[in-house]
């Protein structure tokens, strides 16, 4: 499969997983605070019980984080980057972008989604209950383990998907 088809397949898979995560959000009930942090040229942190969000960005960048139900979300952007960290219902997500777009979303108890990119125009890391997922530049690659996860970095073409039992990885 050539590089274009791999990227198209990865983006399609990412869209399907994002839609599935979005549909599952409507069925949960929050037992803790709902928090939103956003930053452009500033640093905002909110802690409420076992929930916390943080967004930090230089003046050329934008960062947002969203938390529901005992989650943690962190986003850090520099050099014109855009990042989002979303921790939902026990999930912990952190996104650090330098000049590109990065989204980290963790949903459910024990889920962890971590991302850091310096050179990618777009990367995404998603983790479901019990999943551990990470994305980085070419030297770090894509990591999927535990429960359901999806990772993709468009700059490197690296990615992975796990259904919690089996894991598929792109080179």
* Broad structural category: mainly beta
Mean pLDDT: 85
Count of helix runs: 1
Share of helix among residues? 10-25%
Count of separate structural domains: 1
Question: What would the principal axes of the Cα set say about the shape?
Answer: flat
SSE succession: HEEEEEEEEEEEEEEE
Keywords, please?
eight-stranded mixed sheet, seven-stranded mixed sheet, flat, disordered N terminus, single chain, 1 helix, 171 residues, mainly beta
At a glance:
Pfam families: DUF6764. The protein is mainly β. It has one helix at residues 3-25; strands at residues 34-39, 42-48, 51-57, 62-68, 72-78, 82-88, 92-98, 101-107, 112-117, 122-127, 131-135, 142-146, 148-153, 158-163, 167-170.
Notes on the protein architecture:
The protein is mainly β and 171 residues long. It has one domain (3-27, 35-170). It is built from one helix and 15 strands. It has an eight-stranded mixed β-sheet with strand order 1-4-6-8-10-13-14-15, with helices on one face. Strand 13 (148-153) and strand 14 (158-163) form a beta hairpin. It is flat.
Topology:
Elements: H1 3-25, E1 34-39, E2 42-48, E3 51-57, E4 62-68, E5 72-78, E6 82-88, E7 92-98, E8 101-107, E9 112-117, E10 122-127, E11 131-135, E12 142-146, E13 148-153, E14 158-163, E15 167-170
Parallel strand pairs: 3-5, 4-6, 5-7, 6-8, 7-9, 8-10, 9-11
Antiparallel strand pairs: 1-4, 2-3, 10-13, 11-12, 13-14, 14-15
Signal peptide: 1-32
Keywords: Signal
Protein name: DUF6764 family protein
């Amino acid at each position: 499969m050539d590089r274009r088809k791999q990227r198209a397949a990865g983006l399609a898979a990412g869209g399907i997983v994002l839609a599935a995560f979005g549909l599952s959000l409507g069925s949960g009930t929050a037992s803790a605070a709902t928090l939103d942090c956003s930053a452009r040229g500033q640093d905002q942190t909110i802690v409420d019980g076992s929930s916390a969000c943080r967004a930090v960005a230089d003046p050329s960048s934008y960062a947002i984080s969203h938390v529901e139900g005992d989650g943690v979300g962190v986003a850090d952007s520099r050099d014109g980057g855009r990042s989002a960290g979303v921790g939902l219902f026990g999930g912990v997500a952190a996104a650090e972008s330098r000049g590109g777009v990065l989204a980290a979303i963790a949903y459910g108890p024990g889920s962890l989604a971590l991302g850091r990119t310096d050179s990618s125009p777009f990367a995404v890391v998603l983790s479901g209950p019990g999943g551990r997922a990470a994305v980085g530049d070419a030297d770090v690659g894509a990591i999927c383990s535990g429960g359901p996860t999806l990772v993709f970095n468009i700059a490197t073409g690296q990615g992975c998907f796990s259904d919690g039992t089996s894991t598929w990885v792109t080179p």
